[in-house]
TrEMBL record, chain A:
It comes from Gadus morhua. The keyword Transmembrane applies. It is found in: Endoplasmic reticulum membrane. This is Phosphatidylinositol glycan anchor biosynthesis, class S. The chain crosses the membrane at residues 12-31, 526-548. Belongs to the PIGS family. Coiled coil: none annotated. Keywords: Endoplasmic reticulum, Glycoprotein, GPI-anchor biosynthesis, Membrane, Transmembrane, Transmembrane helix. One of its GO terms (cellular component) is GPI-anchor transamidase complex. Pathway: Glycolipid biosynthesis; glycosylphosphatidylinositol-anchor biosynthesis. It is a multi-pass membrane protein. Pfam families: PIG-S. GO terms for biological process: attachment of GPI anchor to protein; GPI anchor biosynthetic process. InterPro entries: PtdIno-glycan_biosynth_class_S (IPR019540).
TrEMBL record, chain B:
Residues 56-76 have a biased composition (Basic and acidic residues). Residues 218-227 have a biased composition (Low complexity). GO terms for cellular component: GPI-anchor transamidase complex. GO terms for biological process: attachment of GPI anchor to protein. It holds the Pfam family Gpi16. Transmembrane segments: none annotated. Residues 1-22 form the signal peptide. This is Phosphatidylinositol glycan anchor biosynthesis, class T. Residues 48-204, 218-240 are annotated as: Disordered. PANTHER family: GPI TRANSAMIDASE COMPONENT PIG-T, GPI TRANSAMIDASE COMPONENT PIG-T-RELATED. Residues 125-191 have a biased composition (Acidic residues). Keywords: Signal.
Length: 563, 719
């Protein structure tokens, strides 16, 4: 009897120990071996970034020339003064603008420069004196009586980062230095908004992140016309020859690119990489048959039908096989002898002077008429035609500026903005573009990285490799750096970091290894595990139940014995 | 003997009926071939199919039969699923039965093609899948991605069109357009659309240009700007385009057409200056060459196998499937990485699965594949070579190939390149060769040469509709009307070497221009049609060469089988020369049956009925043609029409074909076995450990136990 009892005890112990081994060794082993590898992600920092608080700082240097300050004002005017403005865009995006103004008086050389006969010359010589860093603005305040600016012009903005501001009449300014600053500050802010950024620009740049309440029609059209920020752009010029039997076309695209497009792109180099190429496409027809207008003795293309023009051509344009940057297409269409001349009419049925049109975020088309060269059927076909690149490139350059988002928004009254020169782009225009691109990059990268984090959080089966984790971390670091540099007012660095952030975030988001999504529905998992687990667990459970019931019985027995 | 030899015109009527048990599942594809006339027995000869490795079905070892051997090919049941042949597509529609393959067209070549067609479905499917996958792959697979995004963009643009057309559009729709651009990355938010915000921005705008702006732009840049100071760039480099078509009638009655398009561009791709302004040379290819520093690039896509025995040598040989070999410039540091990227980009350009090229199928030949262009590069570490034998070539590869041509498919010889005809052929091969060539005889400067070639062999019996004549229209369903206006030379050559007096075929319109060229070690004569001369087109203003074969003999009737309805029937009427051997080879394609259709002994094999040869054999003695005459019964069964020959019929032996037999019980076995092993192993272990063992009584001694066993046998009560 005793041996039987011992034997029974031993059996129970064995069952218990098997159960313990299964729980302690088997289950963790199974858990570990079937686990998906998920590297650590800086989730907290990403969540912090989800609430974007951007502070944009601009250094403004205000230089008073002789005759603008009264002596007592000169003493009291502070050296620096900071102005802040907070704007809440939506629930998790806030913007703060900070204008750090430094006040000083002009030195002798600057005084000399301001004595130049015209504003443009003054601008040039001021620039040679000191080059202001990227993102900053220098405002020279000149007395009201100065002849530098023409009548009726209060502010002059040149090619560089300098502006010249005419002081108001002394009586309106007042004698107190506080009155003086109160008079100047709104005007300086206005200058800064033209030269670096305005709230509308920044909110437009945030469109990736914030749903805008559709504002005015024009501003929306403006914001959607230009390309999104990208680390590089491919610019392709295509010459469309619909009928090589009718004319042979020749264009000096290399020379034209060199002298018209390249200066602008050199200027834009900090923003993105640009590559240019060109091609000639033969037998490239337009998608619409132009209507013959007998009153004009010409074919016309209506603005309504422009949308259909590109489609057949588009298939042949080809994308750049060697890169994945967005492509800006500029097409030059030379209608053949039987369909020429061809004019584009706008919505008011008026001919468009440039005979060109553009499509937002795609590019532009220009129709180049050469009908006068055909000579009414006397010359044998094909006619050799040399294209006047000056005319063509003027149009394409304007379109390119639009596509790249170099907006020349209408200046406020009293402003004189020097038209851009040979470089096609003023320094402050570049700054403007850099401000909005930086903000756009930051917004896009944060959106990408937060949605990636969200996705990874939601789908537990995705494997997160170390390289993705490192990309995510570098995105976060670059983003933090970019935000910090924006706060410090270092525009160049901020743009650089924001570019890095956007590259890393895209790489992480589109990493192919994320796609190896192990899709195991739960019912299939059970189907796989049950043949293994069922024969293992049933005996264990049964013997555990048996042990439990025996223990209960014994307790009862003891109790009854006690009783 | 002499008499016998000259009378040796034999007429054979071979009927071949394939009968199989239960249902007709044997896919017989008769081939031109053999009948040993003397023995009169059918020989089935093993024949290896060229694209065998690409067949996913397994190959079973050949089963020796009595006279010869056969090499049957097995095909996975699923693979053959519901693929009708062209001939009976319509009929098949009604009778298609799921997993069975209907019959094959007449010839072996046909079969190949068809089979590839069958796998094409799969292939395309996988390719689609891949593309899906690729949408998110990173930069190295950019092209695909780009294509997809382009599609998306197109969609967006289409939508834009709509928005332009519609005068009023709610902001909601505009929101959609924008959303597509954003690739739906963000969570969609319910957005409040107010009814008043209906005005839509115009997406197409006329470019308004202030006059001053044009002038500003046009004004030469200021002196301060460095790039403007440079002199204007040199005049555009010269380029030249030639096109050519060679037509060669083949001995087998098929016809071989070979297109070559050559663009030579005096541009220096190997210099430091980036080439970016393209005229005749295709931009997409040029960008690839520039970006990856390619010195030479050779890529070919081939469908079908070139039958050298029947057709002779091709002008440009190529292996079945895709072949790519590239010489990189010696400035490339990471050749393997560049090669990988290049294959990905090319796969995007040519819509082919070249992205499957990786280190496992890339080699660096050290002796063969020397550069074809100038330059004596010997370091083969800059060479990469890969083939993809499985690659299926189809329309989607032809379209991008045609896009590389300056005239597209709008003018010149390229109008003939209609995919529905080109791919309805026995052999199709298209290639792109880029290499540097000498610009002048002194070879001081180099030019880049792009040769696009397309070779196609049309089958006489499928395309010729039984008549032995060819024309451009019959081959390509197009005629030539003009040369490509951009081409400096545009010519059509017809090989007339074997036809000096016009006894074999007749060529119309006749051309006075004859030229001789040495090709493949042989001097050949060609008729030349110069498309740049208006005279070539004649009065009808279109050129449709007609090539009519003179001798017409033979008759082939083939009726393909229908699954479970009727067998194959192939009849051939042949006139055999004396003392010759003719082989008729029939290949059997093996398919899986429905599982209920297997006989109880499926491993025995399935029978194919005898072939029948009915022949008029020259007789030594004059035959009696009068059937009413009284003759012995054994000599009067076959009526006799001619005195010089008698009729005889020969039957071959039936054929036993092994079909793949599935193991019907395999899955069940696996489940049972696994369960048993687990249950036995684990259960007994557990039992052993947890059971309570009790000893009832001490065990009896060994002797007693043995005695008890014996007693039990005997039925005596135990001890």
């Amino acid at each position: 009897m005793a041996t039987a009892e011992v034997e029974r005890k031993r059996g129970q112990l064995a069952a218990l120990s098997i159960a313990v081994v299964v729980v302690l060794v088997g289950v963790p082993l199974w858990w570990r071996t079937t686990e998906t590898y998920r590297a650590w992600l800086p989730v907290n920092q990403i969540n912090e970034l989800a609430e974007l608080q951007l502070q944009l700082s601009v250094d403004v240097e205000v230089v008073f020339s002789r005759g603008t300050l009264m002596p007592e004002q000169q003493k009291k005017v502070p050296f620096t003064r900071t102005q802040e403005e907070a704007q809440k865009v939506d629930d998790d995006t806030t913007l703060r603008y900070r204008y750090e103004s430094k006040y000083r008086t002009a030195n002798i050389m600057e005084e000399d420069a301001l004595k130049q006969p015209t504003a443009a010359e003054a601008d040039l010589s001021l620039h040679t004196l000191s080059a202001s860093p990227c993102g900053s603005v220098v405002v020279y305040v000149i007395p009201e009586t100065s002849v530098l600016l023409p009548q009726g012009v209060d502010v002059y903005i040149g090619h560089r980062r300098t502006a010249v501001l005419r002081m108001g009449a002394p009586m309106s300014v007042g004698k107190n230095h506080k009155q003086l600053l109160a008079h100047l500050e709104p005007r300086i802010t206005q200058v800064v908004q033209v030269m670096s950024f305005s709230h509308t620009d920044i909110t437009a740049a945030l469109s990736d992140r914030v749903r805008l309440s559709p504002g005015s029609k024009e501003s929306l059209a403006d914001s959607m016309r230009s390309f999104k920020s990208s680390p590089g752009y491919e610019i392709t010029f295509s010459l469309l020859n619909p009928d090589p039997k009718s004319h042979r076309l020749d264009w000096d695209i290399e020379g034209a690119v060199h002298s018209y497009i390249q200066p602008l792109l050199t200027k834009l180099a900090p923003l993105a990489n640009f590559s240019i190429d060109s091609q000639i496409l033969y037998y490239a027809m337009l998608g619409v048959n132009p209507r013959f207008d007998s009153s004009l003795e010409a074919y016309t293309l209506n603005a309504d039908s422009l949308a259909h023009v590109i489609n057949p051509v588009e298939a042949r344009l080809g994308s750049n096989a060697a890169s994945s940057n967005p492509v800006l297409n500029f097409l030059l269409y030379v209608p053949d002898a039987h369909h020429s001349p061809l004019y584009i009419h706008d919505h008011q049925k008026q001919p468009v002077a440039s005979n060109a049109f553009h499509s937002p975020r795609w590019g532009g088309i220009m129709v180049y008429n050469v009908n006068d060269l055909y000579g009414r059927g006397e010359t044998p076909l094909p006619v050799n035609i040399n294209i006047n690149m000056e005319k063509v490139m003027g149009v394409f350059l304007a379109q390119l500026r639009l596509m790249l988002g170099v907006q020349s928004s209408p200046a406020p009254p009293g402003f004189l903005v020097e038209p851009c020169g040979g470089a096609g782009l003023a320094d402050w225009e570049l700054d403007r573009l850099m401000w909005s691109r930086t903000v756009e990059n930051v917004a896009t990268a944060t959106t990408t990285i937060t949605s990636l984090a969200q996705l990874l959080d939601q789908i537990g089966n995705i494997v997160i490799n170390d390289n993705i984790a490192s990309q995510v971390s570098s995105t976060v670091t670059s983003l933090q750096l970019a935000v910090a540099e924006l706060e410090a007012g270092n525009l160049g660095f901020a743009l650089q970091y924001s570019k890095e952030a956007i590259l890393a975030s895209e790489r992480a988001f589109f990493d192919p290894s994320l796609l190896h999504l192990l899709y195991f529905p739960d019912d299939q998992k059970f189907a796989i595990y049950i043949p293994l687990f069922l024969p293992m667990c049933v005996p264990i459970l049964l013997s555990l139940i048996k042990i439990a019931s025996e223990a209960r019985q014994r307790r009862k027995l003891k109790q009854s014995k006690k009783d | 003997m002499a008499a016998r030899r000259c009378l040796g015109l034999w007429f054979f009527l071979i009927t071949l009926c394939v009968v199989s048990t239960g249902a007709d599942v044997l896919h017989t594809t008769p081939v031109t071939g053999t009948e040993s006339s003397a023995a009169g027995t059918e020989t089935v000869v093993a024949r290896e199919l060229p694209e065998a490795p690409s067949d996913p079905g397994e190959h079973t070892a050949a089963e020796p039969t009595r006279e010869g051997e056969q090499n049957d090919r097995t095909r996975g049941g699923e693979q053959t699923l519901g693929q009708p042949t062209r001939e009976e597509e319509q009929e098949q529609e009604k009778t298609r039965e799921g997993e069975q393959t209907p019959a094959q067209p007449t010839r072996e070549e046909e079969e190949e093609e068809e089979e590839q067609e069958q796998t094409r479905g799969e292939e395309e499917f996988t390719r689609e899948e891949e593309e899906e996958e690729l949408t998110r792959e990173e930069e190295e697979l950019t092209t695909e991605e780009e294509e997809l995004t382009r599609e998306e963009e197109e969609q967006t643009r289409e939508e834009e069109e709509l928005t332009t057309e519609e005068e009023e559009l709610t902001t909601e729709e505009e929101e959609l357009t924008r959303e597509e651009e954003e690739q739906t990355r963000e969570e969609e938010e319910e957005q409040q659309t107010t009814a008043q915000q209906e005005e839509q921005t115009k997406r197409w705008e006329a470019t308004e240009l202030e006059e001053e702006h044009v002038h500003d732009a046009a004004v030469p840049p200021l002196a301060g700007d460095p790039p403007a100071a440079d002199p204007p760039s040199p005049p555009p480099s010269k380029d030249d385009f030639q096109e050519e078509l060679v037509i060669r009638p083949l001995h087998s009655g098929d016809i071989y057409a070979s297109f070559q398009f050559r663009t030579v561009w005096d541009a220096d791709f190997m210099g430091d200056q980036k080439v970016s302004h393209y005229r005749l040379f295709p931009k997409s290819l040029g960008q690839v060459i520039t970006k990856f520093s390619v010195r030479e690039l050779h890529i070919s896509f081939t469908q079908g196998y070139w039958r050298t025995m029947q057709w002779g040598q091709p002008y440009l040989p190529s292996p079945p499937g895709a072949e790519l070999w590239v010489w990189f410039q010696d400035t490339v540091t990471d050749v393997d990485g560049t090669w990988k990227e290049l294959t990905n980009v090319l796969s995007g350009i040519f819509c082919a699965s070249l992205n499957f090229i990786d280190s496992t199928n890339t080699v660096q030949p050290s002796a063969s594949f020397k550069p074809l262009g100038i330059g004596n590069v010997t370091d083969h570490s800059f060479l990469r070579y890969a083939t993809l034998p499985r690659e299926i070539v189809c329309t989607e590869n032809l379209t991008p190939w045609k896009k590389l041509l300056p005239c597209g498919s709008k003018a010149g010889l390229s109008v003939l390149l209609k995919s529905e005809k080109l791919f309805h052929s026995t052999f199709h091969s298209q290639a792109v060769h880029v290499r540097p060539v000498c610009q002048d005889p002194q070879c001081r400067t180099t030019s880049m040469e792009l040769r696009q070639t397309l070779n196609v062999v049309f089958d006489l019996h499928t395309s010729g509709q039984g008549k032995r004549e060819w024309s451009l229209f019959k081959m390509f369903s197009r005629t030539l009307t003009e040369a490509c206006p951009l081409a400096s030379s545009s010519k059509v050559y017809v090989d007339v070497t074997d036809n000096p007096q016009g006894e074999q075929f007749e060529l119309s319109p006749a051309t006075p221009l004859l030229t001789q060229a040495v090709v493949l070690g042989d001097r050949r004569t060609y008729s030349v049609y110069d498309l740049t001369q208006q005279a070539s087109f004649g009065s009808s203003r279109s050129l449709n060469m007609l090539l009519r074969w003179k001798a017409a003999d033979g008759y082939i009737h083939y009726q393909p089988s229908k699954d479970r309805e009727r067998p194959h029937l192939l009849e051939m009427l042949l006139q055999l020369p004396p003392n010759s051997v003719t082989e008729v080879t029939v290949e059997f394609e093996r398919a899986l049956l429905k599982w209920t259709e297997y006989t109880p002994d499926p491993n025995h094999g399935f029978y194919v009925g005898s072939s029948v040869i009915s022949a008029l054999v020259p007789s030594v003695v004059a035959m009696d043609t009068n059937s009413t005459l009284d003759r012995p019964l054994f000599s009067s069964f076959f009526p006799c029409k001619e005195e010089a020959s008698y009729f005889m019929r020969v039957y071959t032996e039936p054929l036993l074909v092994n079909l793949p037999t599935p193991d019907f019980s395999m899955p069940y076995n696996v489940i049972c076995l696994t369960c048993t092993v687990v249950a036995v192993g684990y259960g007994s272990l557990y039992n052993l450990l947890t059971r309570t063992f009790q000893v009832d009584e001490p065990s009896p001694g060994l002797a007693k136990r043995i005695a008890n066993v014996i007693r039990r046998f005997r039925g005596v009560p135990l001890l």
